[in-house]
Structure formats: structure tokens, C-alpha cells
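Figure 6 in text form: structure in, sequence out.
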């Protein structure tokens, strides 16, 4: 047999083998379909036999189990509309305000009775915009520029359970609404619980310590400046009143009107606080991201980065921010 004949025979054998495999695959799928069909029928027959209606006690247990499910206790409003630009920790931006209106009780003001005697509160909340991200045992905190540590040694939002906790300042209580500052949560965050901060219980009895990357982060400090255009816009904006008020849907859509910040100085300082904490992700830093923007309150802030020098180039209410405000008021 020549070499050509041998190759042709091998090709024919391969085709025959492929045909046999396809036939086996079809038979397998057919048998598999019949198997699961029979299995479902068997399950249906079993479920219809010896099934007793639930007793009153069983119904009560089911109801109690449902009542204990985790749910939001109210509506949270914030000067931060998206994750982009929101501080990663509370207190970074002291003028960042928010409010929580309790909705889980028929008489919400009763649930807040006595809370105004405290200066700070803990907010337990859900990281509701994590999406389908699968938590990992090791993460890369922004302060470490890509170096990884265990997820439980970090404040990463991507955790086995998407639960967060923030310590914020309580500015006041009115009816069923708490007014807060130093927040690090975006508008609409599901709040699970509110607990008063109690110094004698919440302050460690011994001197606390932190990892070196917290005390001495391996990142270079940034120098911030504002362009003449940005300063001009800051001077022209209409700022919120000095009173704690619950925002209406109409107030969310007023043009060039700040909802939370009460003066030019507050907004300028808050923009600086956000930039100093560098809201960019590790990926964007490595890509040499020189221009980025973030929404705050009712304006969009555009920033240009050149090494450690950062310039606030523009401040304005863009169509993007208007869309976010419309969604927040819906």
C-alpha cells in the first residue's frame, strides 16, 4: 500500500469514527431526556402521596422565618449618585451629607426616640451594586497599588456576604428621618440597621493598631488646584439651605442647585477630599488615566492628572448627572 493510500484510509477511518461519535451523542441526549422526564414524573407522583396540609404551628414557623429575612429599613438619600467618586471609607469627606427616612414601621418617629442624644451612629447596609462579581479570598486594596491581602484583612466591598458597616455623624433627627454627614454610601443604598455609637463599648480597651499599608500607604500624596473656570462655576452655583430638610422629587431636578452642600467652601473642600483619596481603580491608575470625572451632589467634576499634580478642570450639571438625578427621584 502506497503512502497516499494509507493517508486516505486514515482519513476514511477518522470520518467513520466521527460519524459513530455523533450517533452516540444523539443516543445519549435522547436517553438523557427520557431519564429526566421519567424522574420528574416520579417526583410528581411522590409529592402527591402522603402529603398532609401544614398545621397552624408550621404556618406560624414559616411566617416567622419570612419575617426574619433581611430587608431595608428605609430610604437613603446621598450626595453620591454612583460608585465612581464615592469615598471608600466614612469620614474622608466630612461635608458629605445624606439622610435616612425610616419606612419599616407604621410610626417611624417612635423607633428614633432617644437617638438624637448620640453624636454618631453605625449604619449596616448592603453593597447592592456588586453585580455578579464572585468574591475572592484575596483582594487588591487601592492603597496597595495591586499587592494582594486576604479579603478579611481589607474593607473590600466584594465579600462572601455583601454587608458593609459605616460610622457616620448624626446631624439631627426630625420625625422619622435621620440627617447624617461623613457618609460613604451612594443614593439608594439599602440600609439594614442603625445602631448608636457608644464610646465606652465601641472604643477598644487597649491601644489599637493597624497594618503598615494603612499607616504608611505606598502611594504618593497628590497636589490639587482648581482652574479659573471651575472656581467661576463654584461661585455661581446655588447652594442648599442650612436646614435639615427631606428632599422632594422636585428638588432633585432643579438645575444648578446643590441639594446637600451649603456653601462654595463646603463643595470645594469635599471635591478636594475625594481627589486626595484618589477614587481611581488600580486598573485605571496602571492605564495612566490622566482625565476622569465623577458626580457629586448635582454636578459633574472633571479632573486632569499629571503625575502627582491634579487640576479640577470643570464643574457642571451634565446630561449624565441630570439622568442620575431623575432616577434618584423616581
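Output sequence:
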Amino acid at each position: 500500500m502506497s503512502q497516499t493510500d494509507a493517508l486516505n484510509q486514515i482519513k476514511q477511518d477518522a470520518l467513520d469514527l466521527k460519524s459513530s461519535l455523533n450517533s452516540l451523542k444523539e443516543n445519549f441526549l435522547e436517553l438523557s431526556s427520557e431519564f429526566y422526564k421519567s424522574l420528574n414524573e416520579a417526583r410528581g407522583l411522590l409529592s402527591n402521596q402522603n402529603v398532609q396540609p401544614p398545621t397552624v404551628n408550621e404556618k406560624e414557623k414559616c411566617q416567622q422565618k419570612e419575617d426574619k429575612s433581611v430587608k431595608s429599613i428605609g430610604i437613603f438619600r446621598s450626595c453620591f449618585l454612583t460608585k465612581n467618586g464615592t469615598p471608600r471609607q466614612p469620614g474622608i469627606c466630612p461635608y458629605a451629607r445624606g439622610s435616612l427616612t425610616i419606612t419599616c414601621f407604621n410610626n417611624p418617629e417612635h423607633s428614633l426616640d432617644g437617638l438624637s442624644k448620640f453624636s454618631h451612629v453605625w449604619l449596616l447596609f448592603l453593597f447592592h451594586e456588586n453585580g455578579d462579581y464572585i468574591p475572592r479570598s484575596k483582594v487588591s486594596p487601592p492603597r496597595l497599588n495591586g499587592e494582594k491581602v486576604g479579603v478579611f484583612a481589607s474593607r473590600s466591598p466584594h465579600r462572601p456576604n455583601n454587608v458593609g458597616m459605616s460610622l457616620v455623624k448624626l446631624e439631627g433627627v426630625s420625625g422619622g428621618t435621620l440627617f447624617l454627614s461623613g457618609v460613604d454610601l451612594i443614593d439608594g443604598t439599602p440600609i439594614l440597621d442603625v445602631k448608636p455609637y457608644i464610646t465606652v463599648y465601641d472604643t477598644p480597651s487597649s491601644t489599637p493598631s493597624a497594618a503598615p499599608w494603612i499607616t504608611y500607604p505606598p502611594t504618593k500624596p497628590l497636589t490639587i488646584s482648581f482652574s479659573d473656570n471651575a472656581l467661576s462655576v463654584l461661585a455661581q452655583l446655588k447652594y442648599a439651605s442650612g436646614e435639615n430638610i427631606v428632599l422632594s422629587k422636585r428638588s432633585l431636578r432643579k438645575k444648578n442647585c446643590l441639594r446637600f452642600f451649603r456653601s462654595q467652601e463646603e463643595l470645594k473642600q469635599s471635591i478636594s477630599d475625594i481627589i486626595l483619596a484618589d477614587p481611581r481603580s488600580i486598573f485605571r491608575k496602571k492605564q495612566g488615566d490622566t482625565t476622569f470625572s465623577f458626580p457629586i451632589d448635582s454636578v459633574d467634576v472633571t479632573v486632569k492628572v499629571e503625575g502627582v499634580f491634579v487640576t479640577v478642570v470643570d464643574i457642571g450639571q451634565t446630561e449624565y448627572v441630570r439622568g442620575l438625578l431623575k432616577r434618584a427621584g423616581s
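Caption detail: The longest strand covers residues 163-174.
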